[in-house]
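tool=predict chain=A
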Amino acid sequence: MTTPAGTNVIDFARHHAAFRNPAYRFEVSSRRILPGADPSDYLKVYYPYLDIAQVEAVFGNAVYPSRFYGGRGYNLEHSLTDRHIATLNGRGIGVSLTLTGHYFDEAVYRANGPFLERFHRPGNAIVCTNDTLARRIRRDFPDYLLKASLIKHLTTVDKVEQALELYDRAVIPMDMNDDDLFLAALPDKERIVLFANANCAYACPARTCYVAISQRHWGKEKTPGAGCSTPWLPRQETGHTFFDVDKFARMGFSHFKLVPRLNPNSEAVLRMLAAPKKGAGVARPAAAPAATIHSFPKCGRTWLRTLLAHYLNRHFDLQVTVNLQTLFTLIPNDRPGLKGVEHYPFGHVARMPLVVASHAAASLRRGGDILLLRSIPDVVVSDYFQHRKLGAFAGSLSEFIAWEEGSLSRYCDYLNGWAAQDAWLGMHVLTYEGLHADTAGELTRLLCHLGVEVDPDQVAEAVAEASFAAMQREEQGAGHAGMPDPNGDPEMFKVRKGKVGGYRDYLDQVEIERLQTLVAQRLSPEARAMFEHFGLG
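tool=predict ok
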């Protein structure tokens, strides 16, 4: 580098007005957007120093869980929904899908075809690292603008010139913003995109996280040295850095990228604006659900979902990496929201049943639905840790058991509702305990109930992929959509122990007898009979 680091860094507080120049065009990151947020609200909250008319594109991942994503880990909560993309396009703003992973596979590309077709229109773009993927998109989806990702590390004029032979635009790594001679020598400056601000990647000398993210999206084992370099490679922490866009403009550049500053106040404002409005309509999928999985919280729904999702993924060749971010795109909730059915992206897959999940009352069941049960003590103990994780209860486990609003009272009432008028008859009923005893057999029976062809080898693979050890690894790597970080506390993970009778590890005999007394007082005779029928008495 011919000029020192920081040469073109500015004091944003003093020079923020420069970003309002109408001649400057910006593409901005969607990494903090929320499902219910209007895109214009998001732009105003996180990029208040811009005029929305300057925004030519928003970049990020869509809800569809493509393995081709890169740069940042797939995060369902901050994905662009179909509604976001339609709204942006309707307002003349393009969407740049960040397919910046390192790998290409023909089967994955075929599976991604309907996703790529859905947003294929002039004004939208694909950002790529892998040239094979870029060439295929150029051939099959020519209306997309193609952009060479910063992950390609275009740090010489020769590299940039070569990239521009394939790509419409080339994104320059932000650390090159300080090299005036390099910037001045770049050709076709109207096709060059510079970062107008940056965070950790500006000062990172390794950027090994990008490979690790690609490996996670493809379910590959992380290679040594992949991941964030901070633990092993010291670097200066510069915080959020802004660059001299006026100087860049004088050099001939006019296209810039921006990432949002992480501000708790901004997030709180956007969550308030994104909250559902009373009387607002909700988009629904074109296909009606084939069945609903009914369960009370902590009955093992995440495990059942994961088993079913792994099987459907393999059987219908969806080519998705199933984890606690992508899971809800395969088996969504029945209600609107982050994990809701309105975001379901697989309606194009012939013969694959849409199965949704619900914690709703028995009155909302339909013929062919599924009911998942679990012993009351295990539910109560597991839900106690969930309440602690969410900050919803600060007392002891004994206090939680006695709490009128706790899960013991609510689960008994839930069971009483299902047992009334034999509401569970005619449904496909599973128990958490039965899943433990014969996981493959229970999954096979569920698939038969749903009318899905059973492949014993694929059942065995799904059971292995949905083991508790595998699920814990996935949660530690990818997190859990919409849930706070457990900060390494094993009791705070969504996938905690997966143990039948685990309540005995936390309750002594006196507490167990007290719990059983409370259950006997709360549970109806019909509910007790239902539990005994399934061996849960």
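The chain has two domains: 22-201+239-274, 291-533. Residues 307 and 382 are 20 Å apart (CA to CA).
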